[in-house]
Amino acid sequence: MSGRVPHAMGSAEDRRRRLRRLAERHGLLDERVTVETHVPGEQPSGAKPAEPVRAVMVEVSFGGLRGHAFAAEPEPFQGTLRELLALSLGSEGQRALLLAAENAIQKLLGEPGAPPEDVTLCAEEIAESVGHEFGQVCVGMLGYRPELVRACVALFGAERVRVADSTPDYVGRSWEGVTVEEAMTGMDDLFAWADVVIVTGQDGDQSHIAELLELADRHGPALVAYDPTGVGRAYFEGRRRNGRANSSCEATDASD
Predict the structure, then answer these.
(1) Same domain, 44 and 163
(2) Are 141 and 103 in a shared domain?
(3) Which of 30, 70, 165, 213 is within CB 3.0–4.6 Å of 170 for a Cys-Cys bond?
(4) pTM flag (> 0.85)
């Protein structure tokens, strides 16, 4: 097995850049930010961790949006979203504020009327962030998102991308040279093959998140959340994942 690469500040800078571009597009940079914290057991309904953690939930609200992240040592903040984006990100508490703000604005991408260019931009930057942090790796994807498949294939190649989904209408569908596999029977194999697994649309299904964390612990891939609701993304970030460096996975022709 190859070595491991820890999450680095680069990923926080990627988030900052992505959030600034989306905030500018939607006119949110000068919105006032409200920050609240919730100790374990007092989180809003549907946002409780899958298991007890020594962390506090940070809730960031602005412009009618709300997002969450977890931090062992949260930090207070008063100001606009523009000022939040200017933080140094030198502490866990500041990075949690950024992540919660990103999770809030991601909800715009999950709405039926989300502009297609925003969804494409987010997918491209998620793929670029994975490539920047982990290199030319094999990427598994749980949940079929065409824009994300396209972005990952463009960066890593179809032979290094596999997709699994539990929706019967999607299974067997081919997109960008990748055929969608059945998730219920193929997750263990997907996690064993991939260096990084991108999880999409978990919508706070905490029992499923616990299963994904167990699979990641068993097989070793990094977990990255592409989740407009933000709950799954915040929990994965709180459970700092490490991924395999210098990929040793066997590239496959996923279209067969």
Answers:
(1) no
(2) no
(3) 165
(4) no
